[in-house]
Amino acid sequence: MTQANQKYTILYGRLSQEDERDGESNSIQNQRLMLEKYAADNGFENILFPSDDGYSGTNFNRPSWKELMRLVESDQVATIIVKDMSRLGRDYLLVGQYTEMIFPSYGVRFIAVNNNVDSLYGDNDFTPFVNLFNDFYAKDTSRKIRAVVKSKAERGERVGTRAPYGYKKDEANPKSKILTNVDITRPYAWSSASIVDILENEVYLGHTINLQYTTLSYKNKKRIERPESEHLRFENTHEPLITKEIWDIVQDIREHKRRRTNMEEQDMFSGLVRCLDCGEKMTLHRAHTIAAVKNNFMCSTYRKRGKEKCSSHYLREVHLAAIVLDDLLRVTHFARQQEALFIQYINRKNNAETRREIERLQREQELMRRRDTELSKLFKRLYEDNVLGKVTNEQFRMLSEDYNTEQKSLKERIPKTEERIEELQASILNVTRFIDKARRYTEITELSAELLNVFIEKIEVGERAERYSRTAEQEIIIHYRDIGVVGAFAEEAEKVAEIRQRQTA
Fold first, then answer.
1. Angle between helix 339-387 and helix 431-440 axes, rounded to 10 deg
2. Which of 8, 198, 236, 475 gives 20 to 30 Å between its CA and that of 338?
3. Which candidate, 492, 124, 182, places its Cα nearest to that of 341?
4. Model confidence pLDDT, tens digit, residues 1-14
5. Which of 138, 169, 185 is the last residue of a domain?
């Protein structure tokens, strides 16, 4: 048989990050030198040396190993030689499956040099124990690494292997062979999942969040998310790339996800317009068959469930844009021109509103806590009645499911309400931040999605005083970020400013 059609002798090498700690003897280069010498000394020819560098022995989903098995399955391999059994793998069940079933079925000779294993001379009774010890080693190593990672995480050190996009690793503490953040074959093809990960990652605020993920086991490396209660949060650990203001705006936009549109231009009001009566979103109706000036908002409850649940609250987009632009120009103008008066008015108004909101949330929270306690008692009583035969198993199942569903909902809502109360108690609405934005945006000529998201939290649209009347009044309430509802402040401030000017003239 010529070398052209002779089967391959595979010299296989593997090295994981854990193996590197054992010293240079396990390096891929040293494995290759040792295996090539063994092959030469024993007359093996037509040699290939595939290797997997940086892959755990408990994982057989390795690139070179998969290519090796492709050659085996296509009957192109005569012999596989490894330095020792641990280079093949550290999962004793899978290693045994390969050496005792798969390789023999394809007529492949297997040699582990340092363990004196050679399938040509029959089974080695000690081999299963070697595989088991290798498995124990992997488990023990995994446990030690987890302990080290947890210790670092608890100290607030970053434990990720790669720097987040936009950052680079400390040059004084580099790591070699860091994978790129993008697919080099498609460098500009950002996936939606990647964008979402960036938008929701608090690392860009300068914070470190550790222990967000773990793996199922030392064999199954599938990443799973830990409960939020197990996350470790450390603030201001490094330089932020964005401000808290931008972060809050982005999270608010993501909370009110934009409805996809088939039109070329995205609705700039998307997620901002609400029905004043039912609180649901106002949906924008537009089509290629109607003129842009006739694009209109309508209550989504009315569109879905009819006039028995709510009314249309019809409002044309161009009219809303004109109203919002006019109000935004007046409010930002007086925020710049009458700063002291603006701050005094907003703080006086919002302090009263904040107190009312806190009181409302505290009452709601107290009711939820009482109901949670009541449900626990009801469930206990229901269980006792079921044991005593007063309630059938079917009744117990149905009622307990209802109780559990309600209680689960309460346990999700209570901490969110508590968080909102703390936010309101801990902060007076930031008037100065609004004024800073007003100073940055001095040349406002038309509305844009950027302006709306920077300045406005939501817009509430009421129903017309007379249905189907184009001239009847329609209440529109604009909630500004940082300062809330301004109302008729602009007109009041203008009058006060005129009076002061006359007095000083």
1. 120
2. 475
3. 492
4. 345 568 999 999 99
5. 138
